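ok trying again, last paste got cut off:
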Amino acid sequence: MSSGAAGSAQLILDGYNVLHAWSSRVAAAPPVPVGEWREQFLLVLENYAAFVDREITVVFDARKGKADTQALSSHVTVIFAPPRYSADQVIERMVRETVPGPGTVVVTSDKMERLLVMGAGVATMSAQLFVEELLVAQQELSGFTAQNKAGVPPGRKGVQTRKHGQGRGSSQGRPAAARRRQVRSR
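nice, full thing came through this time. structure:
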């Protein structure tokens, strides 16, 4: 798998399968070479992996006839299958020859690949479902970034407190400072 400890939670992506699902969801994507799409997608994955703090290994079919492995960051590793091998075969070998952790998930929409991986005891997820999760995380990350630029402390988004005086008879309706004063005075 990747350089992480054996047994750690990890996502293993069928690269072009997930890239295709992602590119079909990106609005008005300009016609660009596949290599540029791939690089743009990998940047999105790096941000996602750091945001959810999870290792991701992306396996693509061979690039210009040679195998290659590169670590893009501490969270994302990219593998290009060797000549005459598919990304599916590399993923199957990864699952067979290593001991995936309990949180390891293979992401692909290839039904046969999903069956083979599940038969080895590893969870799977469709590329479409993963892309949905990726897009939701991008929105959350965008909101978090916008809050930080506006000077909103992290963790305050969506926090609602009751007005002072609500819920009399219990300390839960009072602001935290009032609850602390109440506890100290007992």
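cool. DSSP finds six helices and six strands in the chain. The radius of gyration is 22 Å.
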